[in-house]
Specification:
It is built from five helices and ten strands, in the order αββαβαββββαβαββ. By secondary structure, it is of the alpha/beta class. The strands form two sheets. It has an eight-stranded mixed sheet with strand order 5-6-4-3-7-8-9-10, sandwiched between helices. A two-stranded antiparallel sheet has the order 1-2. The structure holds guanosine-5'-monophosphate.
Length: about 190
């Protein structure tokens, strides 16, 4: 079991609706040393991918994206949730359905911060149905940039996002993959990874 899986077992709580709550170290209170360990692990996995930018989505992806970006020595760009559906010509945009909030928001990235030739490592805290990552992929490709890889802290492997995105040919690395979890007993089962 790796460091993140151990921490999830110790502090994670399974809520009804297939939500894993990890707010004591990832989603509310932040354990910066743990985030840095995750950054090192994701950097190791994509060290040879020629990454020029790390792209994430506000808010909970930003912390882990910063740890990853520090290892690569590249900037973080985060997609912002736009209040208006009237977005200007100076941004790339995508619609993203929120798994945890149950709404759809328009997310935007300024054209200044993603350019053709960028090799983008997309990073997020969770992968569930893959909506957030699909939006970030669409924005990257709209900019004429390339997806160099996708690094995720926690993938819920019993939801379809990971399978669908890998099927599209993207290289997805998840530090922990939860294959099953049960709100009643609180049990969490991880997928064995190399
Ligand atoms: P997806 O777009 O893949 O369906 O969901 C990913 C996004 O929803 C992540 O950015 C994350 O913020 C949120 N999310 C999805 N599932 C969970 C979960 O079980 N726990 C938490 N804390 N966030 C989740």
């Amino acid at each position: 079991m790796n460091f993140l899986e151990e921490r999830i077992l110790r502090e994670g709580r399974v809520l009804p609706g297939n939500v894993l709550k990890v707010d004591s170290f990832l989603n509310h209170q932040l354990d910066v040393a743990l985030l840095d360990e995750m950054g090192v692990a994701i950097h190791r996995r994509f060290a040879d991918a020629g990454v020029t930018k790390v792209l994430t989505i506000e808010a909970s992806g930003i912390a882990i994206a910063c740890s990853v970006a520090r290892c690569f020595g590249v900037p973080v760009v985060f997609a912002k949730k736009s209040k208006s559906s009237n977005v200007g010509d100076d941004v790339y945009s995508a619609e993203v359905a929120s798994y945890t909030h149950g709404n759809v928001s328009q997310v935007i990235v300024s054209r200044r911060f993603l350019v053709p030739g960028d090799r983008v490592l997309i990073v997020d805290d969770f992968l569930a149905n893959g909506c957030a990552l699909s939006g970030l992929i669409a924005i990257t490709e709209a900019a004429g940039a390339q997806v160099a890889g996708i690094g995720v802290a926690i993938e819920k492997g019993f939801q379809e996002g990971g399978r669908l995105i890998r099927q599209r040919g993207y290289d997805v690395a998840s530090l922990a993959i939860v294959d099953a979890m049960d709100a009643r007993s609180g049990t969490i089962t991880f997928r064995q990874q190399d």
